[in-house]
Design a protein that fits this description.
This protein has two domains: about 50 residues; about 90 residues, PH-domain like. The longest helix has 23 residues. The strands form two sheets. A five-stranded mixed β-sheet has the order 5-8-9-7-6. By secondary structure, the protein is α+β, with helices and mostly antiparallel strands. Helices cover about 35% and strands about 30% of the residues. It has five helices and nine strands, in the order αβααββββαββββα.
Length: about 190
């Protein structure tokens, strides 16, 4: 048996991690999901136990409307209850909700800059969820708070609200060998 030299503990502790992960969640979305479930339940109750005397068409319209609105609210909000962000040496990946959908993967080769934003609000983007605004780019906004912004080589931007976004930006800049914010570019 051969002995392998071991690194001292302090050297191993100083090595930078190979993956950064961040999460963010919004408990208020559960209230909207509950409203969607209630609307869906109302549609089912109407379909099963209704004695509408005004005809089948109004009943059918009410049932379909309640079920459709309930499903849209339920699944639309559950998809954005939380977000998970993972950055490795090759890409940033964003997964929304418990099923990980919608999902977005951006290769770091397409990223030309990364910035920390201390306050991203749903109002800036027109609400919670997966958002696109021509003047701002694309965003995944699950809550108000800190976020990270990627500047892509084609001029577009991608913003995501995530806890510890500043550390995520630092990690991305190290991988891209970009200068820290406010630091002069090497030259």
């Amino acid at each position: 048996m051969r002995d392998h030299p071991r690194k001292p503990r302090h050297e191993a502790a100083e090595a930078s991690p190979t993956v950064w992960t961040g999460r963010a969640s919004n408990r208020a979305q559960w209230v909207l999901a509950a409203a969607g479930a209630a609307c869906l339940a109302l549609g089912v109750v109407l379909a099963v136990s209704s004695n509408w005397t005004s005809g089948i068409v109004p009943l059918l319209m009410a049932v379909i409307g309640c079920v459709a609105a309930g499903l849209l609210m339920l699944f639309g909000t559950l998809a954005f209850v939380n977000v998970a962000v993972r950055v490795d040496g090759h890409a940033l990946e964003v997964r929304c909700g418990h099923m990980g959908l919608p999902r977005r993967r951006i290769l770091l080769a397409h990223v030309v800059g990364a910035e920390f934003v201390p306050q991203v609000t749903p109002r800036q983007w027109g609400g919670w969820g997966y958002r696109w605004r021509p003047e701002q780019g694309t965003a995944v906004v699950v809550r108000r708070g800190e976020g990270l912004v990627l500047r892509l080589g084609d001029g577009r931007t991608f913003t995501v609200t995530v806890d510890d976004a500043e550390e995520g930006v630092r990690f991305i800049r190290e991988r891209l060998q970009l200068p820290a914010a406010g630091a002069p570019a090497g030259g």
